[in-house]
Amino acid sequence: MRRLSLSLLGLAASASAQVVLPAPPSGSVVYAPGAATFNPAADYITIGQDEPGYRNWYAAAPAHGNSVRAFNAYLEQYDVGGVFPTWQLLRTATSWQRCGGQPFEVPPTSEWPHIVQTLRYVRDYVIPAVGPVEPVSAYRNPALNACAGGAPESAHKHYSAIDMVPLRQTTREDLMRTLCRVQARRGPDYQVGLGFYAFLRFHVDTTKYRRWNMDPTVASLCPPIAKSTDIATIAQPLPTISAASSGAAPVIATTPVEPAGPKVVFAPSAAPTGSSDSQPQQH
Questions:
Q1: What is the pTM of this model?
Q2: What are the C-alpha distances in Å from 244 to residues 54, 239, 240, 249, 252?
Q3: Mind listing the pLDDT tens digit for each residue in 53-81?
Q4: How far is CA 222 from the centre of its chain?
């Protein structure tokens, strides 16, 4: 009995020496580390060019709302409304703050037809191949384009180009390989320009069939870009051998051809009817 009493006293002394933390208040948030979220747009989008920033820009002037509504109606008219949230299509340059520009801008109506064809290509071929994507830069007015380091005749200046990032996790090499194969199949029909920048950012426009900034190891796996007028400079065609002269079946030089897809319908070249915007279209 004496031993049991001593044991109980020892347990009581140990318990009294322990520090008991109080329970957290009801409703408090207890931090628990989790997996990092895949958000490639964060490498390019700053505060002010995000969705809250768009809402502030939209409310800053009545003209902004009027222009956005007209632009939305135009996209719906040509069956490309809803490919992306409109506010993402109005993002300007990533360097808008450094250049003293606006984070969002509705382009002149004379440039609207150019984005229609690009949206069709992205909707029908880019998204099915790589999954959902988010635009991070589209139209840049001439001053902003120059400050951002764009080419003098950049497709962004004419609203034909969209820089995007994939929202499905991937590697830069897989992204390049997939997009260049898609471009090889359908790029000539849409005159698609395809370019790649740092990380997972890529560029699509429908101004001219071309490609740039490909990693050499990936570029070697992509079909080369060649126009029909350039074929003779790449390789001479095989001659056709007459069956009568050789006694064998004729050998005909052929090039594999992508099966014909749906007819490419281009957007009108004129500005919307009734528009007061008289800015000439640049080429």
A1: 0.71
A2: 73, 15, 12, 9, 14
A3: 999 999 999 999 999 999 999 999 999 99
A4: 20
